[in-house]
Amino acid sequence: MNRRYRKTIIAGNWKMNKTPAEAKTLIADIKTAVGKQKWCDVVLCVPFVDIANAVKAAKDSRIAIGAENMHFEKSGAFTGEISADMLKELGVKYVIIGHSERRQYFAETDNTVNLKIKAALEAGLRPIVCVGETLEQREAGITEEHIAMQIKLALAGITAEQLRKIVIAYEPIWAIGTGKTATSEQAQEVCAHIRTVIRNLYGARLARAITVQYGGSMNAKNAAELLAQPDVDGGLIGGASLKAGDFALIVEAANQ
């Protein structure tokens, strides 16, 4: 982390877990466990059906509520989809875009990621944009090339001013939900590379200012080591965000 230049953000990604009633209870527990964090922002990205309860439960705290996905059109014949304006009116502040599970299971592409980023920004939401490589890509030695391509396509047409509102999450696909975690050195190497790509696109000042999270099975045990890396500015937390105590320990590590 480097708080001199950028914000540390710990974001939970609940995925398809928790009913609205369960969300209310969990957020109450997280509020108690986290307390008044000093140095980092805390975000909980929850299923759409939980958003209304989550916003109410997080009221009068520094916890922001985010969504896990959105459509790039404002309205239309897109059965089952949710627009950025719908999320905004519910009180959502952040939205995850391009998560590897969306890419793998729901045909998300670099083009739709780009369209969703633009729509989110237009509605006043902060996108958490996910990039990452498969195990095959890592073993083939093309991690940096693949991630550079993802970033360039995701940010096509994005202005420097818009970039200031974007968070990038590095999520090695081989470390999501597998129990495997990139070493702190591997996480630092790729997060630093992401910053280099941004520097080449937008210049050193914006590269220094953008928040780059690590999103591959960060948990209460490894958070401190990962967050100690200079280019790891927080985490996109999966399973550990469903346990108030574990999530609070990650937030505590980010506040050191």
Structure description:
With about 260 residues, this protein is of the alpha/beta class. It has helices at about 20-35, 50-55, 85-90, 100-105, 110-125, 135-140, 145-155, 160-165, 185-200, 205-210, 225, 245-255; strands at about 10-15, 40-45, 65, 95, 125-130, 165-170, 210-215, 235. It has an 8-stranded parallel beta sheet with strand order 7-6-5-4-3-2-1-8.
Q: Which terms would index this structure?
A:
256 residues; alpha/beta; eight-stranded parallel sheet
Beta-strand level of the residues, as a percent range? 15-25%
Run of helices and strands: EHEHEHEHHEHHHEHHEHEH
Give start-end ranges of low-pLDDT stretches: none
Global morphology = globular
Return the structural class.
alpha/beta
Biggest beta-sheet profile: 8 strands, parallel
As a percent range, the share of helical residues equals 40-55%
The N- to C-terminal Cα distance equals 10 Å
Report the count of strand segments.
Answer: 8
Number of helical elements: 12
Going across the major beta sheet, what is the strand order? 7-6-5-4-3-2-1-8
Overall mean pLDDT = 95
In angstroms, what is the radius of gyration? 17 Å
